[in-house]
Design goal:
Radius of gyration: 20 Å
Shape: globular
Largest sheet: 7 strands, parallel
CATH superfamily: NAD(P)-binding Rossmann-like Domain
CATH topology: Rossmann fold
Number of domains: 1
Distance between the termini: 58 Å
Strand content: 5-15%
Structural class: alpha/beta
Number of strands: 9
Order of helices and strands: HHEHEEEHEHEEHEHEHH
Number of helices: 9
Length: 277
């Protein structure tokens, strides 16, 4: 039936055009300029090192946390680096020999308040999935553990708290994942850190050791789209981590910063942009 087939092609083509239009809109919309800086990034990093700041990382065993720890040590931005987790991690590389490890029971965090004392900057990369931990377990990790850790960090003197959240986070969302992410963002903000930075990455482009079929499928589907529209629906994990570190040295005067996926790309690629200019 030519007419039916033609209608199918027309509908399929229309859907494809709509997807491309939406993607292009997301690619082009929103701020894309680099932050205005009185100094170049390398100078800002040198100035930051002179401050002898200390930091802690929550979730250093996860993909973002592992990459973050690696880049922090390579950059030598902090004079002291502590990872806080439920178990001690084994490192073979000599570069990790000075990393401090605080092993805590997240169900009894009040008993481990000392682990959160004396840090200038905190990075929270804690997270699990409903598929892995169940609904209650997901809420406990992504909300309860994160919020309690932030409370202890604030009490311990942390000035700048960085939270890895998710694209689409919204405390009013009907989707559990996005609602919980939005709720914890709002509740951590209420703690009143001197500086609170929220990172909302889209799909992270990374090959996880942990099996997450839905993320694997999403990465495969998004790979060609990411090539054409790199900032719309995904972000390489290395770019996210570089954005976290670049954000720290930029010393923004904003108390609360919300960085969506496109802003993460911009911040994470500052070195490349400086080299081109």
């Amino acid at each position: 039936m030519p007419g039916v087939r033609g209608s199918g092609y027309w509908i399929g083509g229309s859907i494809l055009v709509l997807i491309v239009a939406i993607t292009l809109h997301q690619e082009l919309s929103g701020p894309s300029e680099l932050p205005r800086m009185a100094k170049d990034l390398q100078t800002l990093r040198e100035d930051f090192r002179q401050l002898n700041k200390s930091c802690f990382i929550l979730g250093a065993s996860g993909e973002t946390g592992k990459e973050l720890l690696k880049q922090i040590l390579q950059s030598r931005l902090f004079s002291k680096v502590t990872i806080v987790g439920r178990r001690k991690l084994d490192f073979e590389d000599e570069a990790y020999k000075d990393v401090n490890q605080e092993v805590v029971d997240f169900e009894k965090l009040d008993e481990y308040s000392s682990a959160f004392q004396g840090h200038d900057v905190g990075f929270c990369c804690l997270g699990t999935t409903k598929a892995k931990s169940g609904e209650a377990g997901f809420i406990r990790v992504d909300h309860d553990y994160v919020l309690k850790s932030a409370q202890l960090a604030k009490a311990g003197g942390c000035q700048h708290f960085n939270l890895e959240s998710s694209k689409g986070a919204n405390k009013g969302s009907s989707f559990l994942y996005l609602r919980v992410k939005g709720e914890v963002e709002a509740e951590v903000e209420e703690l009143g850190f001197e500086r609170f930075t929220i990172f909302r990455p889209a799909v992270l482009m990374v090959d996880r050791k942990e099996s997450r079929p839905s993320e694997w499928f999403a990465r495969k589907m998004l790979s060609p789209i990411s090539y054409l529209f790199p900032t719309a629906y995904s972000v390489p994990i290395t770019t996210l981590v570089r954005a976290m570190l670049n954000s720290a040295v930029l010393q923004s005067d904003k108390r609360v910063e919300l960085l969506e996926n496109k802003a993460i790309h911009t911040l994470g690629k500052m070195e490349e942009q400086e080299q081109k200019s």
